[in-house]
Amino acid sequence: MPTECSRLAETLNRDCQCVSVDRDRLRRALAQGEAGADMVRLIEEERPHLFAETTVFLGQTCVERMAAVVAAVERVTARPAWTERVLAWAPAAARHETAAAGVFMGYDFHLGQSGPQLIEVNTNAGGGLLNAALAQAQFACCEEVAAILPGVHPAPTLEQDFVDMFREEWRAERGAAPLARIAIVDEQPPSQFLYPEFLMFRKLFERYGLAAVVCDPAELRFAEGALWHGGARVDLVYNRLTDFGLEAPGNAALREAWLAGAVVLTPHPRVHALFADKRNLTLLTDAAALEEIGVDAVTRDVLLTGIPRTRRVRREDAEELWAARRQLFFKPAAGYGSKAAYRGDKLTKRVFEDILAGGYVAQALVPPSERRLGTGEAPVDLKLDLRNYTYRGRVQLVTARLYQGQTTNFRTPGGGFAPVLTVPGGLG
Question: What residues does 108 pair with on adjacent strands?
Fold first, then answer.
């Protein structure tokens, strides 16, 4: 971690073992309402490494710098010239205009030597509600630390904020019309790793007077100018699909309904095209391109110092890329969840050939910082990345993910989602 962000935060991440998650409080937060025991079982028995055993400390300066990068990206993506550029490589559905902004934007950072570095943007970032429960458990067991290290929001506040966010999406499209039913949609939901969060969202919406269902997109039908699940009309779809252009046959009804304006969809293909396609990072780190788009000098500086240099992979650059591979991270343009992403120093010639076949970007490698677990003779250093959950450019929650291996995996003992406690700048 860069010392300019906070020397104290760095020390605490290395040496402090006294801050942990109150597991009983976390279980109660997860088990709200009916079928709570099943929710806890789904997590503890089938996803034992979903929540980390510790807390991550972060300097206030780092928090502010991440927020500045988020704001800079949001300013750029709002420019018509940006929209024109990125829609040129986007799927057809992304050209459909909508007033909905997209819920649960996720800005993911590593802490480099010069400060936080934005490694990617995700438009259907999972884990927000799970981390709200985790934040509540953290407050319960660390009152003394929380008194000097503010920065984590209690779950009730976040839950209200999340519900308000969905209502704002609805109002942006439908004005004062009543919102009655929400569908939480993903392919084969029970098979998804974050399926427990889908159930939590259903319960959350129901507590706020909204009917909700978790379903596969193939269960939806578009008829009579509306989107239906069974005999019930769906007003808004909370989209957890990773088919970002809604191009798969099973998503046809949802795609048709959205393009017809028959349902409010959030997030949607357009916001993914504007923010999350990895090729966008090549523009955000290209000074000439940013100037051509009309981005001001201050914003350009924030982006060029806060995002690792990224370039499109082209076969004609193969020799150069292979020679520099140890300093690069390769990502598919439409990738998610670190799937098919590779550190250059781990590449084989065979995998590199697949990368050259197309659809990849190469990003300057920014190794993750670390959080130490345990003391004595055998401490374990876990890698960490930071996620800013945002809505319309406003940071709602900062969390961390702890892991071992090449990428975040939720398979590391002691790892998983971790709450972030902010060290005030004056203490750093």
Answer: 120, 387
